[in-house]
Amino acid sequence: MSAVSLRDGVLHAEQVSLVEIAARFGTPCWVYSRQAIESALDEFLRELEGFDSLVCYAVKANSNLAVLNVLARRGAGFDIVSAGELSRALAAGADAQRIVFSGVGKTDEEMELALAAGILCFNVESAAELERLNAVAGRIGKTAAISLRVNPDVDARTHPYVSTGLKENKFGVAFDEARALYRRAKQLAHLEISGIDCHIGSQLLDPAPFSEALDKVLLLVDQLGEDGIVLHHIDLGGGLGIRYRDEEAPSVSEYLRPMLEKLRARGLRIVVEPGRRLVGNAGLLLTRVECLKPGEVKNFAIVDAAMNDLARPALYGSWHDIVPVVPRAGTPLVWDIVGPVCESGDFLGRGREIALETGDLLAILSAGAYGMSMSSNYNSRPRAAEVMVDGASAHLVRRRESVEELYALEQPLP
Ligand SMILES: *Cc1c(COP(=O)(O)O)cnc(C)c1O
Fold first, then answer.
1. Is there a catalytic annotation at residue 121?
2. What separation in Å is there between the alpha carbon of 281 and the centre of ligand 1?
3. In whole angstroms, what is the distance from residue 286 CA to residue 363 CA?
4. Whole-number Cα distances in Å, 9 to 3, 72, 171, 325
5. How much is the pLDDT for 2?
6. Is 58 close to ligand 1, i.e. is its CB under 6 Å away?
7. Please, are residues 66 and 47 in contact by the beta-carbon 8 Å criterion?
C-alpha cells in the first residue's frame, strides 16, 4: 500500500511502526491507513468534479465502521447488498439518500428496511424482484426508486469468480429483456424509475470493457427515451482493479475519462460503486512467524494468520506481496507462507524469498479489500483485531474476538 514505508529499517504505516502495532494490539492484526483510503476516494472525486455525481463505496469490500465513517465524512455514499450492510452504513454515519442497494436476492424484510431508511435507489436484478419490490413498497405506503441492473454481456477478462457481466452469470437483467422490464416498471404504482445500472466484474485491469459495457447501456438509454422513459442517473458499477504484484492498474482517470466523455452531454447523474480500489491498497495483514519448517522439497513458514483471515489466496489463488516488517541481513530462503489451519489450501503466499527467523513479523500487503470482510472463524479461530492508523496515531477499530464469543450463541441439548 502506498502508505507503507521503511523508516530506520522498520516498516511503518503512515507514521506508526508496525512493530509497535503488533506489540500494542497483538497479531494477526489488520492495519488500515486513513490517509490511503482518503486519497483513493479523492482520486475519484477529482475526476468527477464538474459532474453531478456520487461515489458509492461498495461496503462488502471492507465494512468496518471506521472505514465507512472515514468515507462518509468525505462525502461518499454506499453500495450495499444486505440489511446488515445497510445497518452498518447508517451506524457509520451514512446519509441514506446516498445509499444504493444491489444484490440478486433481496428479501421482503430487507426491502422494507431500506424503504423505511429512505435509500436513494434499489438496483433491481430481475423481473421477479421488480414485482416484489412494488408489492412491498405498496404494503408499507412507500415509493421505491429503482434502476435496473442490466447485464451487457461483455467479457470483463478477469477471474471467473469475479466476472459478473456475462450472459452465463447470475447477475442483472438480460440486455434484451431490459427494455420490456422498464416498460413494466413504469406501470407499477409503487416504483419510480430513477436510473440504470451495470457492474461487469471485479479487479479489472483494462478500461476497455467498461467503455464497451457503457456503449451498450447508452444504447438502451436511447431506446428507453423513445419509450418515454427518462432516466435521472446512470450507475457505472465498480470493479476497477488494483496492483497486487506487478500489474499495471489503470489510473482512475484512465478508467473514468473515456466514459465521462460519452456521458458529458447526457445530463445524467453519474454514480460509481468502487470497492477494492478505495481500500485494497490501504490495508495490510500483520502476522508473526510461529514456526519454521524447512524441508526437502519445500520450506514452510507457519504464521499466526491463516486462510480464515485472508481467504483470497486459497479462494482465487491470489497473490499478495509479503514483506518483513524488520528486514534482516542474511541469506534468504524460499518459503511457503502458510497458516495453522487444517487445509493444504491454507497458504498466504508461495515461493517467497525472505530471510526469516521464528518470531519475525510479516506484512501481507494489499489486504484492505475482501480481507476481513471475507474472514471466517474456521478452526474456531477468533477474528483478528482491526487497527486504523491516522498520521502518528493508531486506533483500535475492532477488537480481537475472544474464543468464548465464538460459541456464545450455541448451547448443548437440554
Ligand atoms: C462487488 C460489487 C462492487 C464493487 O466491486 P469492486 O471490484 O470491489 O470495485 C460494486 N458493485 C456491485 C454491484 C458489486 O457487486
1. no
2. 16
3. 5
4. 16, 35, 47, 8
5. 59
6. yes
7. no
Q: Which of 273, 312, 374 to mutate to test the pocket of ligand 1 (most atoms within 8 A of CB)?
A: 273
Please list the ranges in the chain whose pLDDT falls under 70. 1-2, 160-166, 168
End-to-end CA distance of the chain: 51
Q: What CA–CA distance (Å, rounded) separates 77 from 56?
A: 4
Q: Which three cell numbers stand for residue 253?
A: 482517470
120 CA to middle of ligand 1, Å?
17
Q: What pLDDT, on the 0 to 100 scale, is given for residue 163? A: 67
Assess whether the C-beta atom of 199 lies below 6 angstroms from ligand 1: yes
pLDDT of residue 384: 98
Rounded to the nearest angstrom, the distance between the alpha carbon of 227 and the centre of ligand 1 is: 30
- Say whether the peptide bond before residue 412 is cis (omega within 30 degrees of 0): no
Q: Provide the greatest CA pair distance for the chain.
A: 73
**Within 10 Å of residue 260's Cβ, how many Cβ atoms?**
17
- Binding site membership of 386 for ligand 1 (Cβ less than 6 Å): no
The dihedral of CA 237, 208, 1, 352: what is its sign? positive
At residue 200, the pLDDT reads 93
- pLDDT at site 89: 98
Ligand 1: distance of its center to the CA of 275 in Å?
A: 6
Contact by Cβ (8 Å): 323, 249: no
Q: Hey, whose CA ends up nearest to atom 3 of ligand 1?
A: 238
Phi first, then psi: what are they for 219, rounded to 5°?
A: -60, -45
Q: What is the pLDDT of residues 246-261, one digit of tens each?
A: 999 999 999 999 999 9
Q: How high is the pLDDT of residue 342?
A: 87
| Closest atom of ligand 1 to CA, residue 276 | 8
Beta carbon of 275 within 6 Å of any ligand 1 atom: yes
Q: For residues 249 and 206, is the Cβ–Cβ distance under 8 A?
A: no
Round to whole Å and give the CA distance between 298 and 314: 18
Q: Which domains does the chain have, with CATH numbers?
A: 4-32+280-406 (2.40.37.10), 103-272 (3.20.20.10)
How far, in Å, CA of 158 to CA of 125, rounded? 21
d(CA 34, CA 339): 28
Q: Which residue's CA is minimally distant from atom 10 of ligand 1?
A: 238
Q: Are 273 and 56 in contact (CB under 8 A)?
A: yes
Ligand 1 nearest atom to the CA of residue 102, by list position: 13
